[in-house]
Write a structure and sequence with these properties.
- It contains 16 helices and seven strands.
- By secondary structure, the chain is of the alpha/beta class.
- It folds into three domains: 199 residues, P-loop containing nucleotide triphosphate hydrolases (Rossmann fold), CATH 3.40.50; 76 residues, Helicase, Ruva Protein, domain 3, CATH 1.10.8.60; 73 residues, Orthogonal Bundle (Arc Repressor Mutant, subunit A), CATH 1.10.10.10.
- A five-stranded parallel beta sheet has the order 2-3-4-1-5, sandwiched between helices. It has a two-stranded antiparallel ribbon with strand order 6-7.
- The chain is globular.
Length: 389
C-alpha cells in the first residue's frame, strides 16, 4: 500500500499539483530516484509519464525538498502559442528566473544584469531583427547559466533547471534548445537539467539522443518513469482521501471508480473530489451520480484533446480515434478502412501511417503486443464512444 502523511484537510483530492511530500500519495520510488540522480550529479534527467500521472506534482515536491536553487519553467505556456516567438520564450524564462532571484537575494549582480537583458527581449517593441534577437537571447542565457553554475559551485550547491512538458520547446522558432542542454551537459558541472514529458514520443523526437545529427547524441540521460497506480494503490488512495474528508464511502462505489479510471491518479483525484462534493451536499452517491461525474470528466478529456490537436488541422485524427474506440483496439488496416468509410473515398497508405505516428507521439494511442492500436486514457476512450455513437 502507498503511504501518505496527514496533510491539511483533503489534500489528496486537491486538483492542483502537489508541492509537499505530505500531500503526495506514494511515488516514493520516483522521488528517491530523482534524489539519487541529483546526488550523483547526473546532468540530464527525464521524468516520463502519461497525462494525469502526476509528473508536475512529483517535480514540484522534489524541487521544494531538495534544498537546491532551482528554476522551474512551465513549457505549456509555449504550447498555447501556435508559432512561439523569441519574445514568448524570453518572457517565460525571465519570469522563472525572477522567482529564483526572489528566493536567493545573494545572487550576483551579473546574473541580475543578464536577467534584465532577457526581460528586454520579452517586449515585442524591441527594435532588433529576428536573428539579432535569437543571438542576444542565446548569449544572455548562456552567460546567465555560467554565472549560476559559478555561484552554485562557490556555495557547494547544485542548481536545477526544470522544464515541465519540455517537448513544447521544439516548437520555438530559431532556438535549438538541444544545443542549450548539450552545452550545459558539457560545461556546467554544478547544474542538472530535469525535463518532464507526457507526449513521450514527441519529447524523444525533439531530443533525438540516439540520432548522430542531434546535439545531444551519445550523452547519458537518466530516465525515470511514472506508472499508473495498481488496483490496490487506487483503492487505498481513494479510501485515504475520503478519510481526510471524514466521509464514509461504500466500498462498492470505491471499486466502481477504480474500474472506470484504471489507475490514472489525475482521474482518481477528480472523481474523489466530485464524489466528496456530493456527500458534503447530503447526497448519497450511487451509479447515477457517478455517471454525472463521468460525463464531466469526459467533457474535460474531449476539450483537452481538441486543444492538443487544434494546431494540426485534420479531422482525420478524430475519425481514427473514433474507429479505434468503437473497435476497442484496431489494426492498421481497420483504421484505414474506417477513415475511408467515413470519407467515402480512398486515402493513401502514407497518410494513414503519418496520422497514426502523430497520435503515438502525442501519447494519445499506443500499440499492444499484437500491433493493435488502442486509446490509452480510459476516460477519453469512453468520451469518444459516447460522442460518436
Amino acid at each position: 500500500m502507498g503511504v501518505v502523511a496527514r496533510g491539511r484537510g483533503s489534500m489528496l483530492f486537491d486538483l492542483r499539483p502537489k508541492e509537499s511530500r505530505s500531500d503526495l500519495y506514494d511515488r516514493e520510488d520516483v522521488l528517491e530516484g530523482l534524489e539519487r540522480s541529483l546526488s550523483r550529479g547526473d546532468p540530464l534527467i527525464l521524468v516520463l509519464g502519461l497525462r494525469r500521472y502526476g509528473k508536475t506534482s512529483v517535480l514540484k515536491v522534489f524541487l521544494n525538498e531538495c534544498k537546491c536553487p532551482f528554476v522551474y519553467l512551465d513549457c505549456r505556456d509555449i504550447f498555447l502559442v501556435e508559432y512561439p516567438r523569441i519574445e514568448d520564450v524570453a518572457s517565460i524564462f525571465s519570469r522563472s528566473i525572477r522567482r529564483l532571484l526572489d528566493r536567493y537575494r545573494g545572487l550576483s549582480s551579473k546574473i541580475k544584469s543578464f536577467v534584465r537583458d532577457i526581460e528586454e527581449l520579452s517586449t515585442p517593441v524591441v527594435s532588433l531583427r529576428f536573428r539579432e534577437k535569437v543571438t542576444r537571447f542565446s548569449y544572455s542565457l548562456f552567460e546567465l547559466i555560467d554565472c549560476l553554475d559559478e555561484w552554485a559551485c562557490s556555495r557547494g550547491l547544485r542548481a536545477i533547471l526544470a522544464f515541465d512538458e519540455a517537448q513544447y520547446l521544439g516548437k520555438v522558432i530559431g532556438v535549438d534548445f538541444r544545443k542549450f542542454f548539450a552545452r550545459i551537459y558539457d560545461n556546467n558541472r554544478n547544474i542538472t537539467v530535469v525535463l518532464t514529458g507526457s507526449e513521450i514520443g514527441l519529447l524523444q523526437e525533439f531530443l533525438r539522443v540516439e540520432d548522430s545529427s542531434s546535439p545531444l547524441y551519445g550523452r547519458y540521460v537518466k530516465e525515470i518513469v511514472l506508472k499508473p497506480f495498481t488496483y490496490e494503490q487506487s483503492v487505498d488512495f481513494l479510501e485515504k482521501g475520503f478519510s481526510e474528508m471524514k466521509i464514509s464511502i461504500p466500498h462498492t462505489i470505491v471499486r466502481e471508480i477504480v474500474a472506470r479510471v484504471d489507475g490514472v491518479v489525475g482521474w482518481l483525484t477528480y472523481y474523489g473530489k466530485m464524489v466528496s462534493e456530493y456527500y458534503l451536499q447530503g447526497v448519497n452517491v450511487g451509479l447515477r451520480e457517478l455517471d454525472e461525474v463521468q460525463r464531466k470528466a469526459q467533457n474535460l478529456a474531449l476539450e483537452e484533446l481538441r486543444k492538443l490537436l487544434s494546431f494540426r488541422r485534420s479531422r482525420r485524427y478524430f475519425t481514427i480515434l473514433k474507429t479505434i474506440a468503437l473497435l476497442g483496439s484496431a489494426t492498421w488496416s481497420q483504421v484505414k478502412r474506417g477513415v475511408e468509410l467515413y470519407e467515402g473515398r480512398r486515402v493513401s497508405d502514407p497518410t494513414i501511417t503519418d496520422l497514426l505516428k502523430t497520435l503515438l507521439k502525442l501519447s494519445i494511442i499506443a500499440k499492444d503486443s499484437e500491433n493493435r492500436y488502442y486509446i490509452i486514457d480510459p476516460v477519453l476512450k469512453k468520451a469518444l464512444l459516447d460522442a460518436f455513437t
